[in-house]
From TrEMBL:
<feature type="transmembrane region" description="Helical">
    <location>
        <begin position="17"/>
        <end position="35"/>
    </location>
</feature>
<dbReference type="GO" id="GO:0005886">
    <property type="term" value="C:plasma membrane"/>
</dbReference>
<keyword id="KW-0812">Transmembrane</keyword>
<keyword id="KW-0472">Membrane</keyword>
<dbReference type="Pfam" id="PF12823">
    <property type="entry name" value="DUF3817"/>
</dbReference>
<protein>
    <submittedName>
        <fullName>DUF3817 domain-containing protein</fullName>
    </submittedName>
</protein>
<feature type="transmembrane region" description="Helical">
    <location>
        <begin position="80"/>
        <end position="96"/>
    </location>
</feature>
<keyword id="KW-1133">Transmembrane helix</keyword>
<feature type="transmembrane region" description="Helical">
    <location>
        <begin position="47"/>
        <end position="68"/>
    </location>
</feature>
<dbReference type="InterPro" id="IPR023845">
    <property type="entry name" value="DUF3817_TM"/>
</dbReference>
<keyword id="KW-1003">Cell membrane</keyword>
<feature type="domain" description="DUF3817">
    <location>
        <begin position="15"/>
        <end position="100"/>
    </location>
</feature>
């Protein structure tokens, strides 16, 4: 679909996906624990636009990479759905990334 990812080795795709997991989780932390409390408790919206935009970019990067890492990680439909749903819950992308590092012989995120 995207020539940039189509020409990547499996190892590089997986490494990029791990970075996407980490980036999505860190931006989620920044958004929920720093930017939102500043906005709602102190009426300071200074950090909301940049942190919100970064989190949005990281989320799209994470969700987009799911399609490309499915084959190298030998994920079945269930694994793909679990990893996709994890993107919608705060901090679960860290769990997905941890499971990728500690994969078993079937390369499953379960």
């Amino acid at each position: 679909m995207i020539p940039y990812f189509d020409n990547m080795s499996d190892e590089k795709l997986i490494r990029q996906f791990k970075w996407a997991c980490i980036a999505e989780g860190i931006t989620c932390i920044l958004l929920y624990l720093i930017a939102m409390p500043l906005k709602y408790q102190f009426d300071n919206v200074l950090l909301m636009p940049p942190v919100g935009a970064l989190h949005g970019i990281a989320f799209i990067w994470y969700m987009g990479m799911l399609y490309y890492v499915r084959k190298p990680l030998k994920w079945d439909d269930e694994d793909l759905v679990i990893a996709g749903i994890a993107g919608f819950f705060p901090f679960l992308t860290f769990w997905v990334e941890k499971k990728l590092i500690n994969t078993d012989s079937t390369n499953s995120v379960k």
